[in-house]
Amino acid sequence: MSGPAHSLAVETLGLAKRFGRRVALSGLDLRVPRGSVYVLVGPNGSGKTTTLRVLLDLVRADGGVATVLGHDTVASGPRVRSLAGYVPERQDAGYGWMKVQDLLAHHASYRPTWDVAYARQLMERLEVRDHTKFGKLSKGEARRVQLAMALAHRPPVLLLDEPTDGLDPVMRDEALSLLSDHVAETKTTLLISTHLVYEVEGLGDHLGVLKEGALRAQLDRETLRTQLKRYTLEVPDGWGGVDALQDRVVRTGGSGREVAWTVWGDEGDVLSRLKAGGATVRDVDPLTLEESAVTLLAMRDHAALAGELLAGRREDS
Question: CB neighbours (10 Å) of residue 263?
């Protein structure tokens, strides 16, 4: 994720937030390139929802700076919200008394770029019941309305927090297909927070791994594909590993004479070191986006790799 600051749709520098004694964000440096589909993953309580709410100035950070399309989120909060499509983690009960058609009209009145024909198309694909009060909808039905509201004005930035939460399998597939079509047809940047990384396997081109309010990794997909790989090895009895690779190994598995190492580094260099260390390499496999996320979340603090796994921040600093 290299490049000048103006190539970023979303940027945070040293973002910090506490709720009482709980640290929600701890020096968050997020960098989302324009036009990317950035998947932000982390366990519950890692700060994903807080991050999105700070970007919309719905929550004020205690420290640091956040910008969306170059606009400071505190100084230009209304402007940022007008430029963003947002699906919140939870249904907003504040509009429960409004019929869906009235809620959509209210939403459209604040967004000059609202595309009436496209809104109608979205509602048809998502099977939105527009004559029902929003508060009477099921969780999945409300989520479909929120998706239509987020996309219909074709915003340059989409901030989606668990966008498929509550959807049944058929509607989940339709919503993901709709998102894919939207990204292909509309010039936009998508920042999506999700636990279900496999759902966006075909969409995501950048991955951010958030844990305890700080990024553990922030990388583009091509770098992940070429640098993070699983090596299936046959090793001799009593094999002690490869000292030259100890600062490259992210995860280990297997037992006995067949083991699997997930290693960060150039494949040719890793292979030569493994062979020199007495291992026979049976297979080399790149990781899926989900496998990368799970592996990097499970990784213990790895000082030797910290800079490389946050390459976007390091190269642009």
Answer: 24
